[in-house]
Amino acid sequence: MRYNLMFRCVRSALGSVVPGRLIGDVARLVKRPVFDGFSMSEHPTPTKGWLANGGHHAFDPFVSLSFAAAANNPDPGDDLHLVSGYRSPYLTAKAAASLDLFSGGRFTLGTGAGYLKSEFEALGADFGRRGALLDEAIQAWRATWAGRAHDGPNFGVNGISPCRLHRPRVAADLDRW
Over 70: is that where the pLDDT of 77 sits? Predict the structure, then answer.
């Protein structure tokens, strides 16, 4: 069995968000053999109702995992569980490759289609087509990491020539997770 510590954005009794250095402090405490990873979720615009029923805010996952990776070299890995429909697959591919390179190859990318319709609406993202967009985003990530242009119906762009990027580890079942 493997254990991963997911860091949630919390507010103190005084109402202020925890300072960024706390992410580094917690990441330094996450050590093997107890934990195999330190992860972040992604909830950019949670509703009051979802928060009242156990939901939580979340820091920007790429920024916060950069803090964790810088503070916790070389143990253990950093994981991200992102909703692909919230951003361009090209920005995701570049951010994931950059974070993996800067963390010494310790980053693992996990993704899902998402489930909070209100967050998709707040971001102007397509909730109804999120599954198909996730499938194509994965194809676009892989093409970008290989230095190839992606030719797809939603994210295909003619005339670009992405530079070959370091490919991060991806969840073993990334295609259908």
Answer: no
